[in-house]
Amino acid sequence: MSSTAPPSGIDHVDERLLRTTPLKKLLARPELGSVVGAAAVFVFFAVFADSFLRPSSLGTVLYAASTIGIMAVPVALLMIGGEFDLSAGVMVTSSALVSSMFSYQMTANVWVGVGVSLLVTLAIGVFNGVMLTRTKLPSFIITLGTFLMLTGLNLGLTKLISGTVSTKTIADMEGFPSARKLFASQLTLGGVEFKVTVLWWFGLVALATWILLRTRFGNWIFAVGGGADAARAVGVPVHRTKIGLYAGVALCAWISGQHLLFSFDVVQSGEGVGNELIYIIAAVIGGCLITGGYGSAIGSAVGALIFGMTSKGIVYAEWNPDWFKFFLGAMLLLATLLNAWIRKRVEATK
């Protein structure tokens, strides 16, 4: 009988049983690069923009970050799962349009429109997931097609129903005050005013982090992103996982859409185009890999915070806002390079 023991002089130890120092654990975190970048951005604008450190500025920065962060969270999970969603930006607008026009045209309680919008938006997300899994086409093609269709529907149906490119006001309709309180209210903490979207954002980050690190579905997300065929071979329901991720993007698009509607009580049908790239940028700055299988929800939150600090820091510094895209692109490149360097260092020490 042949022996299965390792050859003499060779110690075979499963790397999962090896002890890892706290420093190595820290370096292995996907959001490390974005945290370093966020600290650098904070110090930069603290020096060059006097009003950046005012307490009132904190609420403004967090609000700008939250409007991106709410969508960056599910986009990050989707990217960890190895896919993209180019329709996420216009889906937010679609959600708001459905709520507004259904409520106005049916003279129904605003909450009825909100409920119908949730169903329609989730259906769009599930459509993306089902089309992806059934056709085997790249998510870039599937969601680009959805992006174009939604862009046309948003504009065409709004003009057909309302006669203009914007919806009619629903501010005087039943249910509007309570819906605004949930999706677009303000609260004061320590003398600083915060939008309720900040609470939505923090809650979604906490929920997504728990899903990724403490649930079976989180393991499935990482497995699918690391390799769909290998994941399927060990029993991971690849199709259900991807459809669930697209439904998650749709759910957060619904939340963002309701905030958009109840903040202004009217919606412009052309809004949202281009925002999908900002969501992806926030996720990538936060440590998500384009190839999937790596990233975190906390990293996406830090990426969104960098967006908020940069967009408002430029205003506080009284610079030309045209420079915003330059700073955002520079942060994308620097964060990506730093994340790649950190990963190489970690892998070299294993």
Describe the fold and architecture.
The chain is mostly helical and 350 residues long. 71% of the residues lie in helices and 2% in strands. It is built from 14 helices and 2 strands. The protein has helices at residues 22-28, 32-48, 55-80, 88-106, 110-135, 139-162, 176-184, 196-214, 216-226, 228-233, 238-264, 275-285, 297-316, 324-348; strands spanning 186-189, 192-195. It has a two-stranded antiparallel ribbon with strand order 1-2. A hairpin with a 2-residue loop joins strand 1 (186-189) and strand 2 (192-195). It is globular, with a radius of gyration of 22 Å. Residues 1-18 have low confidence and may be disordered.
Unreliable runs, pLDDT <50, ≥5 residues? 1-18
Percent in strands: under 5%
| Radius of gyration (Å) | 22 Å
What characteristic shape results from the CA principal axes? globular
Q: Helix/strand/pairing class, anyone? A: mainly alpha
Q: How far apart are the first and last residues' alpha carbons, in Å?
A: 35 Å
How many helices does DSSP assign? 14
List the helices and strands and how they pair.
Layout: H1 22-28, H2 32-48, H3 55-80, H4 88-106, H5 110-135, H6 139-162, H7 176-184, E1 186-189, E2 192-195, H8 196-214, H9 216-226, H10 228-233, H11 238-264, H12 275-285, H13 297-316, H14 324-348
Antiparallel strand pairs: 1-2
Helix pairs in contact: 2-13, 2-14, 3-8, 3-9, 3-11, 3-12, 3-13, 4-5, 4-6, 4-11, 5-6, 5-11, 7-11, 8-9, 8-13, 9-11, 12-13, 12-14, 13-14
Features:
single chain; 350 residues; mainly alpha; 14 helices; globular; disordered N terminus
